[in-house]
Amino acid sequence: MQFYYLDQNGKQAGPLDIYQLISVGITPYTKVWTEGMDTWKPAKEVEQLRSLIGSMSQQMPPPRATVAPMTQNQHRHEVTVSPLSNININYKRNRLYFYPKQISSPRWIAPFILIGFGVAMFAGLFRFIPQDESRIIALILMFIGVVLIIIISSSNTTVSDQEYDSAIKNIFNKADTISWALDKLGLDEDQVNEIQPVYFHDFRTIKVAAEKIGADGKLRTSKYEATVLFFSNTQMYMYQQVLDMLDGTQLEYTMEYFYKDIVCFSTFTKTYKNAKGVSTFQLIVPNDEFYCSMGNISDADAVIGAVKQKLREKRG
Predict the structure, then answer these.
(1) Burial class (CB in 10 A: 0-12, 13-18, 19+), 204
(2) Tell me, what DSSP letter sits at residue 265?
(3) Going by C-beta distance under 8 Å and a sequence separation of 6 or more, which residues neighbour residue 51?
(4) Quick check: 235 and 185 in contact, CB under 8 A?
(5) What percentage of residues in the chain have a pLDDT greater than 90?
(6) Which of 38, 90, 237, 308 is placed for a possible disulfide with 230 were both Cys, Cβ 3.0 to 4.6 Å?
(7) Helices 106-122 + 131-153 axis angle, to 10
(8) Domain co-membership, 232 together with 283
(9) Does any domain span residue 189?
(10) Which helix (H) or strand (E) element contains residue 270?
(11) Does position 57 have pLDDT exceeding 80, yes or no?
(12) What is the span of the domain harbouring residue 120?
């Protein structure tokens, strides 16, 4: 069995077998993951590891990931691939939303031929077959034909807007995402209390494999993202998780910028023909930039206004 683990800097490492995992010095509180687990868990809560780490002090305080402080004129932008498998999504069905299959005509021929023969036999057109037998066979043929039509019609050849949205519902939970973001960034809540954390989640509109305008005029894409912004006295921290709805790939982005280095913080709306506009905010620092869809919150304008005000205060 192969395990991944998060080191003391919050970086993913592995895969390692059980004995290799113990040899690298994990603690009962080191977060680990292996195939079949819903999410990252402390090693002491994993049955396969519990006996091997039983001799370790159970009173050891759980360490929070630490991140080396940045120096002036520096920013941090990291990307990691998450191996989480706790999301139960039918990716094949999601692909049908963007690339629907068309039922070929030959698939419809067989059931209608069966029904046609059944009707003809029931009407007595085949006189060489006794009438009673003919009607029984006719009913059987018509029944089989109707069943085939139902099966073909109910095949998942297309996916509605509502079905695709249902696959996304509850993927990201605000409280859990903020907690996970603090861990990944190595922060405590009292370090980033200049203003309340800002949380967005919506379809990603940049670098996506597929996009579609639904019947309701809403743009849907093949990637969904959740973003959290934190604000300390000197820096702005960002955490973003992006889920590919077509193959399950999950990317995590962690970023840190000094307020004084932020060149631009703006919002814009990307418009599409016959679709509602998609609002995005943009943050630019020297040699780097960050984008985030800002839908799915009712007071987005007020939140962005508060962020802009805070940046003006901090930048003097």
Answers:
(1) buried
(2) E
(3) none
(4) no
(5) 5
(6) 237
(7) 160
(8) yes
(9) yes
(10) strand 264-272
(11) no
(12) 106-153
Helices (H), strands (E): how many in the chain? 8, 14
**Does the structure show a pLDDT above 80 at 314?**
no
Q: List the 3-6 sheet strands across, edge first.
A: 12-16, 3-6, 31-33, 41-42
pLDDT tens per residue across span 222-246: 999 999 999 988 888 999 988 888 8
By the 8 A CB rule, do 271 and 277 touch? yes
Mean pLDDT in the chain? 77
Same domain, 84 and 218: yes
CA distances (Å), origin 154, targets 103, 149, 236? 11, 8, 50
pLDDT in tens, 266-293: 887 777 676 677 788 888 888 888 888 8
Q: In the predicted model, is pLDDT for residue 72 greater than 60?
A: no
Question: Cβ distance 224 to 245 under 8 Å?
Answer: yes
From first CA to last CA, the distance across the chain in angstroms is: 54
- Quick check: 26 pLDDT over 80? no
Instruction: State the residue for tokens 């905010």.
Output: 281
261 and 295 housed in the same domain: yes
> With bands split at pLDDT 50, 70 and 90, how would you rate the model's confidence at 136?
confident
- Written as six digits, the tokens of 272 are 């599409």
Residue 128 shares a structural domain with residue 228: no
Which sign does the torsion angle of CA 192, 194, 199, 200 carry? Answer: negative
Report the alpha-carbon distance of residue 82 to residue 251 in Å, rounded: 6
